Amino acid sequence: MTKENRIVGVSGGLYTVETQSSTVQAKSRGVFRLNGIKPVTGDYVKLHFENNAETVITDVLERKNEIIRPPLANIDISVLVVSSCEPPPNLFILDKLTAVFESKGIETVFAFTKIDLAQAEAYAGIYSDIGYKTFMVDNTWGSGSEKLSNYLKGKTSALIGNTGVGKSSLMKYIAPIAEHKTSEISKKLGRGKHTTREVKLYRLDDETYIADTPGFSTVEVSRYGAIPSEEVADCFREFREYTDKCRFKDCAHIKEDNCAVREAVKAGYIAASRHESYCKIYEEALKKERAY
C-alpha cells in the first residue's frame, strides 16, 4: 500500500488510478457497496493486481475531508471562481459555499474573472477584509492567473463555480494539460465544445493537483454539504471574536437583544451581506432539523 495510488477520475464504473509508476483502470470491490463506501476522485486507495488482467481497489484510505456533490476527497483548497459580470456575483451562494468549506476545514480562495469587462474590487473586498485570499484574472489575456497558479503549488485544489463564470477559461491558463485533454475528448465526441460533467483531477507536478468540477445552478448549492444550525456561526470567521460577547450563551445572532454580532454589523465591522447570508443559512438548517 502506498499513498501514491490516487483516484484521478471516475467514469462508467471504472476508476482511473494514478500509481507511482503509471496510470491504471480499476474496479472497486463489491463489499464497498455493502459497507456504504464509494471511492471518489481524490481518494488514496490500495490496489490488487490480479494475474496482470484486472486491477481492483481493495481499500480506501482515511479521508482528510470530502465533498458529497461533486464527489471529491482530500482537497486542500477550494477555488471559488466568481464572474465580475455575466452572471454577476451572487453573494449568498458565495457565503454558503464558504461556510460549507469552513465546516470541512478546506481553505477557500476567490478567483474573480472577467475583470476585463467589469470591476470586482468591491466584491473582493468583502472577503479579503476577513482574511480570504482573492485573485483577479483577465479572461482574455490570462493576466493574474500566474499569481493564482503559484499559490496553488504543492496543493490539491478544486475550481468551483456556477455555470458561466469562466472556469474553463481559467483552467486553460492555470492547467494547460487539462485544456489539452478536454480538447481531445471533444474531438472524440464530435463536439465543438466539451462541458465538464464529471470530476477529474489533473496532476500539474509531483505535488500539485487541480480538479475541474461541473458548473452548478443556484438550487444545487446545498448539495455541497449541510451544516447543523448550532455550527453555522462558527463557519463565519468574522463572527468568532464577537460570539462570546453576546448576552445569551445560546444566542442565534438573528434578532436577539444585546447580540454582539448584530452590534458589529450595525457598526460596520461585519458586512451586512454576510450577516444576511448567515441568517438565511441558519434558518434553512433549522427548518431541515425541525422537519426530521
Description:
The strands form 3 sheets. Strands 10-9-8-11-13-12 form a 6-stranded mixed beta sheet, sandwiched between helices. It is α/β, with parallel strands linked by helices and 292 residues long. It contains 9 helices and 13 strands. It starts with 5 loop residues before the first strand and ends with a helix. Strand 4 and strand 5 form a beta hairpin. 29% of the residues lie in helices and 22% in strands.
> What does the average pLDDT come to?
85
Rounded to an integer in angstroms, the radius of gyration calculated over CA atoms is 21 Å
Cα shape: globular
Sheet with the most strands, sense and barrel status: 6 strands, mixed
What is the H/E order?
A: EEEHEEEEEHEHEHEHHEEHHH
Oligomer: single chain
Q: Beta-sheet strand percentage?
A: 15-25%
Span between N and C termini? 42 Å
Share of residues in helices: 25-40%
Low-confidence stretches: 180-196
**How many beta-strand runs?**
13
Q: How many alpha or pi helices?
A: 9
Query: What spatial order of strands do you see in the largest sheet?
Result: 10-9-8-11-13-12
Structural class: alpha/beta
Task: Describe the secondary-structure layout.
Elements: E1 6-11, E2 14-18, E3 23-28, H1 31-34, E4 45-50, E5 54-60, E6 66-67, E7 72-73, E8 77-83, H2 91-103, E9 107-113, H3 121-128, E10 133-136, H4 145-152, E11 156-160, H5 167-174, H6 176-189, E12 200-203, E13 209-212, H7 240-243, H8 260-266, H9 272-291
Parallel strand pairs: 3-5, 8-9, 8-11, 9-10, 11-13
Antiparallel strand pairs: 1-2, 2-3, 4-5, 6-7, 12-13
